[in-house]
Amino acid sequence: MFLALKEMRYSKLRFGLIIGMMVLIAYVVFMLSGLARGLAEEFKKGVEDWQAEEIVLSDEANKTLTASQLTRGNIDDVQSSTKAPIGLYSGAIKGTQQDITVFGSTKQAFLLPKLTQGENFKNKNDIIISQNLADTGYQVGDKINIGQYEEDLTITGIFPESYYTVSPVVYTDLETWTSLKFGDQPFASDEEKPINAIATEEKVTQVENEEDLDLLTTPELIENIPGYSAQNLTLDAMIYFLFVTATAVIGIFMYVITLQKNAIFGVMKAQGIQNWFIAKSIIAQSFVIGILGTGVAMILAYLTSLVLPTAMPFAIIWSQWLLYSFVLVSVAIIGGLFSIRSVAKVDPITAIGG
Fold this sequence. Notes:
Elements: H1 2-10, H2 12-48, E1 54-58, E2 70-71, E3 78-79, E4 83-92, E5 99-105, E6 117-118, E7 126-130, H3 131-134, E8 143-144, E9 153-159, E10 163-164, E11 167-173, H4 174-182, E12 194-195, E13 197-200, E14 206-207, E15 213-217, H5 218-223, H6 228-260, H7 262-270, H8 275-307, H9 318-337, H10 340-344, H11 348-351
Parallel strand pairs: 5-11, 7-9
Antiparallel strand pairs: 1-13, 1-15, 2-12, 3-14, 4-5, 4-13, 6-9, 7-11, 8-9, 10-11
Main location: membrane
Membrane topology: Multi-pass membrane protein
Transmembrane segments: 15-36, 237-257, 277-301, 321-340
């Protein structure tokens, strides 16, 4: 390590360039990771907030909440200690054209979020909204209109930030939700009124009409949100590709530096210094490059996250950033290993011109 640090201090510009490259690559990794996790959170947070054990969809829905078509009558087909119907409607607020997701359920449903302001919906056309929607200019007592629904909806409460497919979440009762989505469409009875899913707080003990219903866990439902898996795979693939790029960049730089030092290595070998001692110095230099590059990049990425616009989804998962840091330092060391073979091939007599 002493030899490695002494050489790095002597060749500040050369190793500064390598560390600079490492900083740039690691910075992109952390920023992509933050954006990927931020987007993922805004896709699924609304579903995770339910804290449901299982979700029941219609069998032909292909495990997708939006495509599921059940009726309130199906609630009795599901045997569980605590269950709640879920209606899903995606629309926009008139005037501002703010996209939102409206979930309809019962007033005492276990999946309703805890309020930070106001009170839960009690009457028809009462709604509660997420904090991220309130931050766009709404407060308790305001009246809004959604989609083609002509009646005013009154905001009675606000709950913590929540998203579903990157749009703020709103909750209301089933009657209001049915009117929002289906307007004046008549139904033969309340049992025939549609819903999208049934969430259960505990495991389902029995399902009647099992061939028509599909039981999913919360992670399974999230994985089948349209676009969720494809988006995550794309961004994760970009991050993995950057790991390969970091390995190649560090490997090429260290290899070129090693070739430039053949004469020095030849002298060292002629003095009886073993190959493993020189190899240890190269690995130590790669380790220092990885640590410094990753550390500076992590600080820069964190500072960048503080000034990003609130509309940009960005989430820091420290455990994941630490894992990526470990991988980046590892690939830097792997890159340095490519040069060790060339060190072993150095002939002392040839290298010093004998």
